[in-house]
Write a structure and sequence with these properties.
Strand content: under 5%
Number of strands: 0
Structural class: mainly alpha
Largest sheet: none
Distance between the termini: 44 Å
Number of helices: 2
C-alpha cells in the first residue's frame, strides 16, 4: 500500500531552498577545486600533466552538469509548490461556490 505524503507549501519551499543552498555550496567547492587544479597544472609539464588536465576538464564538465540538474530540481520543486497552492485555492473556491448555491430544507 502506498503511503501518503503530507507537506505544507512552506515545507516544500524550505526543501527547495535547501537544495539551492546545496547547489551554491557545490558551486563554490567546484570553483575551489578548479583553482587548485589550475595551480597544480601551471607548474606541471609533460604527458601526465596533459592527461591530468584532460581528466579534470571532463570532471568539471560533469560536475557542472550535475549541479545544474540540482538547480533545476529545486526550481521544479518550487514550481510544484506554487501549483499546489493554486490547486488548493481553486478547490476552496469551488467548494465555497457549491455551499453558497446549496438550498437546504428549513
Amino acid at each position: 500500500m502506498a503511503g501518503n505524503l503530507t507537506a505544507s507549501t512552506d515545507d516544500i519551499d524550505a526543501f527547495a531552498n535547501s537544495i539551492r543552498t546545496q547547489h551554491d555550496s557545490l558551486s563554490q567547492a567546484i570553483q575551489q577545486l578548479r583553482t587548485l587544479e589550475h595551480n597544480t597544472s601551471a607548474s606541471w609539464n609533460g604527458e601526465a600533466a596533459k592527461a591530468f588536465t584532460s581528466f579534470m576538464e571532463i570532471y568539471f564538465s560533469q560536475a557542472a552538469r550535475m549541479n545544474d540538474q540540482l538547480q533545476e530540481t529545486a526550481d521544479k520543486i518550487a514550481k510544484a509548490s506554487g501549483k499546489t497552492t493554486d490547486h488548493d485555492q481553486h478547490s476552496a473556491k469551488a467548494v465555497s461556490a457549491v455551499i453558497h448555491n446549496m438550498t437546504l430544507p428549513n
